[in-house]
Amino acid sequence: SPERGSRGARAPRIYTGTGDAGFSSTFTGERRPKGDRVFEALGTADELSSAIGLASELSSEQGHAFVAQLHKVQCMLQDVGSNIATPLSSAREAHLKRTSFSEKPVLELEQWIDRYSEQLPPLRAFILPSGGKSSAALHFSRAVCRRAERCVVPLVQAGEVDPNVAKYLNRLSDYLFVLARYAAMKEGKEEKIYIKSEP
What we know:
By secondary structure, this protein is mostly helical. Helix content is 57%, strand content 3%.
């Protein structure tokens, strides 16, 4: 039958039904309501990775070399999710070893930001999300990233998430902003600026 693999084994179902009562599990095994801020942060990190995936596909069509960096960012966001899903209050040593988050990726983002910033014309006005499809998608990713950071900060303050996760998201939004401007410049697309409407 179509759902059987090459060895005749049935493929695993995508649905489990375990969350139908409105609860889900953290990596540490805790059952929490789906509205818990841990799951809100997890979902937003997933949304961010999806937005970056779209931006990456559009940028790839334009031949941008930074697409490899975006793939690396998506992999880092999986690690961000693992850390968020492992509340420090209930984590055992084995959990912490598997889901720790270091400062190294934060420093790498700062290097990338500096590299692209040096090539950009100075900002002289407030830029609206624009500059072609790649740039606009990167701006959208930046906005989602800011929301992910807002979701994570209370968890860091509560001692549930590594502070480096919030730092990473903060630098990532800066990186996505600079990259959006860089993509527009490389594609020769105009960045639209804010013009105050007349009263």
